Amino acid sequence: MSLEAVQTDPEGYLANRDDWSEELAKELAAQMGIELGDEHWKVLNTARAIEGESGSSPGLRKISKRSETPIKSIYKLFPDGPAKLIAKIAGIPKPKSCL
CA 11 to CA 46: how far, in whole Å? Predict the structure, then answer.
């Protein structure tokens, strides 16, 4: 499903988690100037797994610990607000810790 075919909230987060696909994630990331590599996917898949289990978007510490990716590395992978970028690209709601 392409970006034009999915519903988002006013901030650009997916309205329906089930609309997410790897192709959509690539399209979203490209719009943000990010080319997804293996480390990106590890972080994104971890965030989706945590959100699927808990029902809420994880913060960076949880993502870092579970994916075994240092927070500094996450900031390099997803500059300019990594928690929001991860949530948008992973198709999960905006973390409650983000304003």
Answer: 22
Q: What share of the chain is helix, strand, coil (3-state, %, to 5)?
A: 60, 0, 40
pLDDT in 10s for each residue of the chain, 99 residues: 666 678 888 888 998 889 999 999 999 999 999 999 999 999 999 999 999 999 989 999 999 999 999 999 999 999 988 999 999 999 999 877 665
Annotated catalytic residues are 98
DSSP 17-29: GGG--HHHHHHHH
Q: Which of 38, 37, 17 is nearest to 90 (CA)?
A: 17
Contact 57, 93 (CB under 8 A): yes
CB 35 within 8 A of CB 78: no
